[in-house]
Amino acid sequence: MKELPAIAEVATLVVNVAREELLPRFRHVSFSRKADDSLLTEADVAMQQCLAREFSQHWPHLAFLGEEMPEEQQQRILANDAQGVWIVDPLDGTRNFASGLPFFSVSVALLLKGEIVLGVVYDPVRDECFTAVKGKGAQCNGIPLPRVVLPHELRQTITLIDFKRLAPPLAARLVTERPFSSQRSFGSVAIDWCWMAAGRCHTYLHGAQRLWDYAAGILIFAEAGGTAVTLQGEPVFNGTLAPRSAVAALDKKLLREWCRWLEVPTAASTSNY
């Protein structure tokens, strides 16, 4: 097996492409709707094409899986990750981007033999590039993420929740009982994971995110000390394209309290991701 790509080289490439392909189009782009009613812009396509071209030049032995590929093609690529597969969301938060909301990112992860081993998430509006290599910690703009002081109890937390992908009874219970101090939703899964890793928010709930949404962010989060499970108490990452729910906290005590409130099975709730 060849050595992993240098994280600094990957991050620099992602940052440069995003500055060239995304920022000039922000607030100046139209969109179309895909079959699942999600949005697609010229920026999504241009970003994916440019990243695919650059990555094939720098690391020709690694495959490339982008969100905007047909699912059949994605499945074929994912089935053979022995040499490594880039998992890429060229624009996470397309609806925000198309609406002029400044919360969107680029997410790039390297999947190797069933493990996420490298992750880069770049937020071009704030010029924050979060990175991680498995077993080597998480960074933002090359500086290790600091340990943060977290709330002691669930009711003191700022919680990130994507309500629209939750079962209606659970969504209603969250609204009426409010086990947290306050709730936010920013519209970019990759940013969610990174802001959790940085301690800007404390607990997390999402009903169905795709592999390209979370692959890089969940590694960054895990390398910052965070723990995540699904609503069924399973590891979030399972190496498939199937949508996965996520329940997470940077602190294991908070995660246990959050899981108890959500009635998540705890038998498997010790996985980092």
Which features does this protein show?
273 residues, alpha+beta, 5-stranded mixed beta sheet
How is this structure best described in words?
The structure is a single chain. By secondary structure, the chain is of the alpha+beta class. The chain has two domains: 7-144, Fructose-1,6-Bisphosphatase, subunit A, domain 1 (Fructose-1,6-Bisphosphatase, Chain A, domain 1), CATH 3.30.540; 154-262, D-Maltodextrin-Binding Protein, domain 2 (3-Layer(aba) Sandwich). Helix content is 33%, strand content 26%. It has helices at 7-21, 42-58, 71-78, 94-99, 168-177, 189-197, 211-223, 252-262, and strands at residues 31-33, 39-41, 63-66, 85-92, 105-112, 115-123, 128-133, 138-140, 143-144, 158-162, 182-184, 203-209, 227-229, 244-249. It has a seven-stranded mixed β-sheet with strand order 3-4-5-6-7-8-9, sandwiched between helices. A five-stranded mixed β-sheet has the order 11-10-12-14-13, sandwiched between helices. Strand 10, helix 5 (168-177) and strand 11 form a beta-alpha-beta unit. Helix 1 (7-21) packs antiparallel against helix 2 (42-58). The two termini are 24 Å apart.
Helix and strand arrangement:
Blueprint: H1 7-21, E1 31-33, E2 39-41, H2 42-58, E3 63-66, H3 71-78, E4 85-92, H4 94-99, E5 105-112, E6 115-123, E7 128-133, E8 138-140, E9 143-144, E10 158-162, H5 168-177, E11 182-184, H6 189-197, E12 203-209, H7 211-223, E13 227-229, E14 244-249, H8 252-262
Parallel strand pairs: 3-4, 10-11, 10-12
Antiparallel strand pairs: 1-2, 4-5, 5-6, 6-7, 7-8, 8-9, 12-14, 13-14
